[in-house]
Amino acid sequence: MPDTPADAPALRPETVAVVAGRPPHSPDAPMNVPVHLTSTYVAGGELGYGRYGNPSWTAFEEVLGALEGGSCVSFASGMAAISAVLDLVAPGGLVVAPRHSYTGTVALLEERAQQGRLRVEFVDISDTSAVVAASVGAAMVWFETPTNPALELADIAAISAAAHEHGALVAVDNTFATPLLQRPLALGADLVVHSATKYLSGHSDVLMGAAIAASEQHAAALVQRRTLAGAIPAPLEAFLALRGMRTLAVRLDRAQANAQELVRRLDGHPALEEVRYPGFGAIVSIVVRGGAAPADALTRGTGLWVHATSLGGVESTFERRRRWPSEQPTIPEGLVRLSVGIEQVDDLWRDLRTALDSLDLLG
C-alpha cells in the first residue's frame, strides 16, 4: 500500500481494496501489477519456480489479506482452498460442519469421512448451543454464514471462543458476505475461505479461490499444500480477480441495495411461501408455493434473470437448488436462490414479478 505517516488513520476497507497491491508510486511505474506469464525464473531469487510463486498472485493476496486481516494464499478454485484448509485436520480428526452448506463442501467432507481421513458431524449452525456441544473433541469447526442456500446465520465470536476452549480450529467460508460486510478473523476465527470466482472477481469470468490465515504457521501450511498439490491459480485469473476487487465496494453496495428492495417487494407475494434474507448481502432465497414444478417454471419464465448455478456477478442469476441431486433433502423443493446483481432494480422487479404472477399455482 502507499506510504502513509505513522500517525495517519487506518484506511477504510473500501479504500484498501483500491490502493493495496499496487506497484510503487515512482515515475513511469505502471498502475497495475502486470500478468506474469512464466513458469521459469532466473535462479538466485526467492521465487525459484512457477509453482512456488508469481507476482500476479502476490498482488491479489496482498489486497485480500489486508481486507480480511490475515495472510492470504490463493488457489486454483474455491474447492482447492477448502481442500487445503481441511488438510490441516490430522487423520481421524472430527470436523463439525453445517448441515446446510455448499454441496461441494459437503461432498468433500463425506468423501474424506468415507475414506477414514476424518470424521464429520453435521449440525444446525444457527443453534449456537448445539455447535458448542458438538465442538467438544473436535479438530475443526467449519462453517458458512450465511449458509448456502438456507441463509442461516452463525455466531462467529461465540462459536470461535468455545471451539478454542476445546482445542479446535475455526474456519469460515466468507464468500457470501465478503470482508466488506464481515471479517471472521477479527471475531476469533483462525481461517477464512473464499470462492474468488464469486463476489471478489465479480464478473463471472474467473475460477479461483483463496484462504486467509490468522497465523503465519497456518499460512505456511497452506502454501505447502498448494505447492505439493499443485492447486495454483493462473496468473491471468489472479490479475482479473484483483481487478474485480477494485470495484467490490461499489458493486456490493448496489447489489445489496437491490436485494433489500426486492425483499421488500417480494414479501407477501401469493406465489411464495417464504422469503429468506439475512439482512445483509445480495443473496436472497425464496420458496415457491407448490414445490419443484412452479419453481422450475419461474426459472424458465424470465428474460433478464439468468438461470445459472453460480453467483456474485454483476448480472442477476437464480436457480432451484434441489435440481441438484447432491443438495440436502432438508432444503425445500421449491427453494430458488437469487444472486442479485447491479442492474436497475425496477427492471429486475418487473421481470421477476411477471414470471411470479404467471405461475400456474393450481397445476
Automatic annotation (TrEMBL):
<dbReference type="InterPro" id="IPR015424">
    <property type="entry name" value="PyrdxlP-dep_Trfase"/>
</dbReference>
<dbReference type="InterPro" id="IPR015422">
    <property type="entry name" value="PyrdxlP-dep_Trfase_small"/>
</dbReference>
<dbReference type="InterPro" id="IPR000277">
    <property type="entry name" value="Cys/Met-Metab_PyrdxlP-dep_enz"/>
</dbReference>
<keyword id="KW-0663">Pyridoxal phosphate</keyword>
<dbReference type="InterPro" id="IPR015421">
    <property type="entry name" value="PyrdxlP-dep_Trfase_major"/>
</dbReference>
<protein>
    <submittedName>
        <fullName>Trans-sulfuration enzyme family protein</fullName>
    </submittedName>
</protein>
<comment type="similarity">
    <text>Belongs to the trans-sulfuration enzymes family.</text>
</comment>
<dbReference type="InterPro" id="IPR054542">
    <property type="entry name" value="Cys_met_metab_PP"/>
</dbReference>
<dbReference type="Pfam" id="PF01053">
    <property type="entry name" value="Cys_Met_Meta_PP"/>
</dbReference>
